[in-house]
Amino acid sequence: MELTHRNGHSNGSVPYQNGNSVHSSNGTLANYRIEIRTTNITSINDNCIPRDIYFRIFSFLDLTSLCRCSGVCQKWRELVKDGKNWQYLDLFSFQVAVESNVIENLSRRAGPFLKSLNLKGCKNIGDNAIRIFAKHCNQIEELNLRECRDITDGACAALGKHARNLKILNLDSCDKLTDYSLNSVGNGCSNLEDLDVSWNKHITQDGFAALTAGCPNILRLRCAGVEKFNDTCLTLIGQSLNRLIVINILKCSRVTDEGVTRVCEGCPQLETVCLSQIPAISDQSLLALGQNCLNIRNLELNSCAAITDAGFSHLTRQRTEEHYLEKLDVEECNQLTDATLQNFAANCPFIRELILSHCDQITDEGMRALCEGNGAQQHLEKLKLDNCPQVSDSSLDFLCLCVHLKEIDLFDCQLITRQGIASLRARLPHINVHAYFAPSTPPLPIVRGRRKCCCCIL
């Protein structure tokens, strides 16, 4: 809409919507002609939008938003019901609120379109819901049942019968499962590539025998905290899963160097290995890794107190090319000395994360050797030095050479000072430093009300 004076030009008047006469800026009443210019706008016709466009838009919505869209109109309701919108479902945020009937309804709606379902922490989900789900959603490829503690062998039997395309299965902390579950999965899910059975106390070597025989394509296997996991299990894995790239046997206390040797010999493609908190692990395991597994990138040896500098010499000495190691955790491996850091500097040019907490024989000399290596200078991003009593501010000066260092932990390093940290931050302003300095003297207790004697305060 445009206001013009009859002589064809505007004089700065204030427009008024419902009449031809308005007051001009100088207060006089003037006669105006209103000209309304409109542009023809064609309304968007829902029928002109391809269904695939709707499905693409809906794919960005979470479950709650998708359900709300179904209330917009009848057409949207029908579109939302289409199975293409139910390929990936994540119910983790609902957890306790999710009951078995919800899973049953969703499985009927999604049907064979469903590819991925996350039920992590949904403690009210039982075997019956999984049976109905497996029957209707038999094309499922990824299923997360972590901490679904009501799940038993019946649920795994249903998965083995119907979910033939299953590739990723997480059964972490489903502590009612037995060997029968692994037998069901082994018999029915031959395409399985990623399995997590951590913290299941009833599973034994018999279950792993059935699993490894039926699922030879497993690439990632996590068995942390499986109490009955032993060297025989590792031997079975080494014999059958030669494509394995990840294995986690954290806190499997029955494992020894013999079992680790067997799995290293049979699984040369290993890239990530967790042997943390296994007391019997020694330098022999590192020798087996160095001789057989040339692609190791992530190695966790937390609390393996029997490991020495010789073990890491074995790990790198067998190579004719550079070591690919990117992350190493040797927390509480208190026999390690500066010789190991010198080894890293010479042979690990891609080291990105290094955890040395509680390695109390590490000194400034070892840190100097590490930081002068090209690997640390070009790649080191995260370093933990908690409780390293011989590391001082001199080490922080050396670390200034590591220009990509983003995070460092210095808790309870008695020789580290505030001034040293300030100097490090000045030279690496992007770094995140975690440290704690205890007060020089403990604060006096605050006593309110009637004064008490010293013995009462104590």
Strand order within the widest beta sheet: 4-5-6-7-8-9-10-11-12-13-14-15-16-17
Measured as a percent range, the helix fraction is 25-40%
How would you state the average pLDDT, rounded? Answer: 83
Note the gap between the termini.
85 Å
Percent in strands: 5-15%
Kindly name the structural category.
Answer: alpha/beta
Tally of separate helices: 18
Number of strands: 17
Instruction: Return residue spans where pLDDT drops below 50 for at least 5 consecutive residues.
Output: 1-36, 38-45, 451-458
Main sheet overview: 14 strands, parallel
Multimer state = single chain
What is the CA-atom radius of gyration, in angstroms?
Answer: 33 Å
Looking at the structure, what is the overall shape? globular
